[in-house]
Amino acid sequence: MRFFEVLMLNIISYNTAWPQEFATIAQQLRAALGNLALRIDHIGSTSVPGLAAKDIIDVQVTVQDFTHTAQLIDILSSLGYTWIERITGDHVPPNYQGAETDWQKIVFRHPTTQRPTNLHVRAQGRPNQRYPILFRDYLRAHPVASAAYAQIKQALSQRHPDDVDFYYDIKDPLCDIVIEAAYDWAHTTNWQPGPSDG
Question: Superfamily for 18-186?
Answer without folding.
Answer: Beta Polymerase, domain 2 (3.30.460.10)
